[in-house]
Amino acid sequence: MADCPPNAINRGPDGEVYINDTCIGCGNCQRNCPYGVIRMAKIPPKKPSLLKWLFFGSGPGPGEADKKWTEKRVSAETPKKAIKCDMCSGINGGPACVRACPTGAAIRVSPEEFLTVARMGQKV
Amino acid sequence: MATRGFDRADVGDSVAHEGFLRYRRFRWFKTALLIGLAVILIYLLVDVQPRHNGGSWLGYTLGSIGFALIVWLAMLGIRKRAITRGRWSLKAWTSAHVYLGLALIVIGTLHTGFQFGWNVHTLAYVLMMVVILSGAYGISVYAMLPQGLSDARSEMTGPQMIDAINTLDKQIQGAAQPLSDADSEVVLGSLGEDPFGGGVWRRLSGSYPRCGNRRALQIMRGRLAEATGKPAGAIEQVVTLLERKAAALQRVRNYVQRRALLEIWLYVHVPLTFVLIVALIVHVVSVFFYW
Fold first, then answer.
1. Which residue range is the domain that position B247 belongs to?
2. Residues B99 and B198 both lie in one domain
3. Is A41 part of the contact surface with chain B (CB cutoff 8 Å)?
4. How far is residue B284's CA from residue B290's CA, in Å, rounded to a whole number?
5. Tag placement on chain B: N or C end, fewer CB within 10 Å?
6. Cβ B18–A104 below 8 Å, yes or no?
């Protein structure tokens, strides 16, 4: 994509935009994104396992750790990289948020069908 | 691929939300129904002497199945917190959890052979039934209440609702200046009401009998009825503001009430599950120890 020096940011076949590992953290994409969905973040340290958290309370628990926990364990020199939602394109199984929704409220729709689905619940 | 996790064949050509109760055309409802009916049929056909009890071969079978099922049902708490890669869906797990949990009513009750007493065995059964019934309450509120949540707050966000109340508070404070000392004390009693405050009972019932704003509104309406001339104008302005604040408070309290009704059952369902597992272990150990 334009303005990305290592050409790390690309659009995938399903329409999702992903940033691969060659990102150098220059921040061009974040500044230019018209939707504001790209942010710069340091790679967080590894958390204790889920069972350790369940039984001993160690670690911040499931989900993204809060800033205070991460900042304490990451050096100030560590560079930041650009991250954004890429519909979990690198892993098997599809978007994790859809798989993790217990009631089926979260679904993934392609852009062409989005308005149809959004209007489904509305009264005419 | 982004759409890999969602099987379009199940909902036809158009993409639609499929709830966890209808998951895959009620697959888990049908499974649980079959299991329940099969267990009832076996229970009726098998002849146990002197009467059905938890210690017969059927009793032990049902008890083992029930124990394993209870442990598996409790695993939902771990499954939902470990978002691993792979083609699994929490909606499928939740659907199975709900229906197999309901099937447990049949399995557990037939395991008892309808023999109850004041002992740890019946305690385990009662705990199981309370957990299941709290879960049934949970899914009924999940089906009915969420649609009303955004209507209840007129599509405002939480911070917007609080801002509205703070703005009204400032206006009320200003409008209370021209009033007499006694009146302004009453009006200022409406300020500082924390709309998100209140304990569990306040939130669930939605009734706030000691609401400062309601009292102020009541008294000021009375004063408006008897006031005349210039003071009447000031009082009228205060009454209008108090009425608006009452509406804003009502909006927040309505939302808080719905959220409380949606969440209260988990404070019963989850802790009692752990008490149940302990009671179950005591039940099994004591049965074999005193055999």
1. 158-263
2. no
3. no
4. 10
5. C
6. yes
